Amino acid sequence: MINLSDLRRFKKEGRKFSCLTCYDASMAKAMETAQIDSILIGDSLGMTIQGHDSTLPVTVRDMVYHTTCVRRANQHALIMADLPFMAYANTKDALKNAKKVMQAGAQMIKIEGGAWLAETVMSLTRNGIPVCMHLGLTPQSVNVFGGYKVQAKTRQAADALLAECRVLVDAGAAVLLLECVPAQVGKEVADAFPDVPVIGIGAGADTDGQVLVVQDMLGLTQGHVAKFVYNFMSKQAGPYAILDAITTYHHAVIKKTFPALEQTFQIELK
To answer: How many domains does the chain have?
Structure first.
């Protein structure tokens, strides 16, 4: 079973690692067969599974249920699980809810935010709960951002993001996840923390790992599809097309062919 030490080792060796969202046992088993390195039980299930238009309605109970389903079927990948909206509004709630998700089978919890969560990160870490810190575009704050938009597009904003990452790493954050930021910012953050694996989704090719929503990379998403998504089902056929698509994604990440230039935000910071 892959663990946090393995992700750190991958980074030191320059070996990229793959991550996909997953919410059910059958898909978790396929990801085990494909040797996906890490699984995120994301609160994105609010949209992909429950049909909501955001992640906000997802509950801790939902996260516990789906984490249990995934863990039963996959004994290979490192399992991360989101704490949903308002589940970590204070340190007491964060500890209580993280305990539930960890007992369901997660090896790490993910929370969204910035430097103001340093105390929460410190408390979770001191209690033996590894934390992945999600920065950049954070879907739980979509109403603050005014929609799903690229973040840290200026030099000042990029420096501010880097400073927040530093505060959170100093507080104990074990992994950073960057969403929807210029490729240059993804590289700067990954380079700044040699002992902290950095996962990207729309954060360029230079982060240590890549994550996609599984429905997106299988071409199941209707309507607008984010720039950073590639449909790995588009060249598959036959009875094992889904498994082949997941395996192709895994190898594309490791071989550094995904993301390609067209799946990244090439924005000059000014």
So the answer is: 1
Is position 265 within any domain? no
Is the per-residue pLDDT at 137 higher than 70?
yes
Cβ neighbours, 10 Å, residue 54: 16
Would the annotation count 110 as a binding residue?
yes
CA distance 179 to 48: 18
At 155-174, the pLDDT tens digits run: 999 999 999 999 999 999 99
What CATH number does the domain containing 155 carry? Answer: 3.20.20.60
Please write down the long-range contacts of 111-118, taking CB distance under 8 Å and 24 or more positions apart.
111/82, 111/83, 112/138, 112/139, 112/140, 112/141, 113/138, 113/141, 114/164, 114/168, 115/163, 115/164, 115/167, 115/168, 117/88, 117/168, 118/167, 118/168, 118/170, 118/171
206 marked as binding residue: no
The packing angle between helices 118-126 and 91-103, to 10°, is 50
- Over range 29-57, report the average pLDDT: 97
Reduced 3-state DSSP string for 59-93: CHHHHHHHHHHHHHHCCCCEEEEECCCCCCCCHHH
In a domain, 80, yes or no: yes
Beta strands in 152-214 (DSSP E): 175-179, 198-201, 209-212
Can you tell me whether residue 24 is helix, strand or coil?
coil
Its domain, for residue 210, covers: 4-260
Non-local (6+) Cβ contacts of 117 within 8 A are 88, 111, 133, 168
Given a cut of 50, whether residue 100 has pLDDT beyond it is yes
Q: What pTM did the predictor assign?
A: 0.96
Residue 44 marked as a ligand binder: yes
Residues serving a catalytic function are 179
141 occurs within a structural domain: yes
